[in-house]
DNA sequence: CTTAGGATCGCCT
DNA sequence: GGCGATCCTAAGC
């Protein structure tokens, strides 16, 4: 049996966000050729008190109630943009927040947008990812499967770390944060394995 | 190393 | 009117 490398099967976004969030770890994501390997995600569900969708459809979260594999962008703390991939679970909107990327391509563009030399701080955090990839509200509702976006499923199995989600005040114990174990590009370390 | 505070605005109560 | 699915900087230990 050959190890690791195998053909990449497309990621199915018509699935529970928790499952999609796991499968996205290791995927290659680019915007106009700028991007890298997804190393950290969080799942948010329709019946999840921490989710924007919990209280039902509003103008802001409308995209999350639309078709899967689209992009939901919202403004965070009045300053930052945050990027999500829409999922579908039994017809109910859900999403995956992209929290960190290992920069691989378009480093010049990222450095320019972030005003930083390439480092672990370039794309390590949801606001930083959006800034480095040039994502704004203008991308809200766009298909993830069409230009300028490109997503490629992981080509091997990556060791997964799990833990509670960051920066929320409700459902704080739900372990729906996922990461590439040992990656230097995580926004924060994961709690030590029990 | 850790903690504290400010920036800034769309959305919901 | 209050509060974030955040980030940055400065100050304290």
Please give the count of helices. 3
Number of domains: 1
The CATH homologous superfamily is termed Methylpurine-DNA glycosylase (MPG)
Binned strand content: 25-35%
Mean pLDDT: 91
* Gross geometry: globular
Describe the structure.
By secondary structure, this protein is α+β, with helices and mostly antiparallel strands. The chain has one domain (17-180): 3-methyladenine DNA Glycosylase, Chain A (Roll), CATH 3.10.300.10. The protein has 3 helices and 8 strands. Strands 1, 2, 3, 4, 5, 6, 7 and 8 form an 8-stranded antiparallel beta sheet that branches. Helix 2 (107-114) crosses helix 3 (126-133). The protein is globular, with a radius of gyration of 16 Å. It starts with 16 loop residues before the first helix and ends in a 14-residue tail after the last strand. The model has no long low-confidence stretch (mean pLDDT 91). The protein binds a DNA duplex (13 and 13 nucleotides) through strand 3, strand 4 and helix 3.
Short structural summary:
The protein is an alpha+beta fold and 194 residues long. It is 12% helix and 29% strand. The structure holds a DNA duplex (13 and 13 nucleotides).
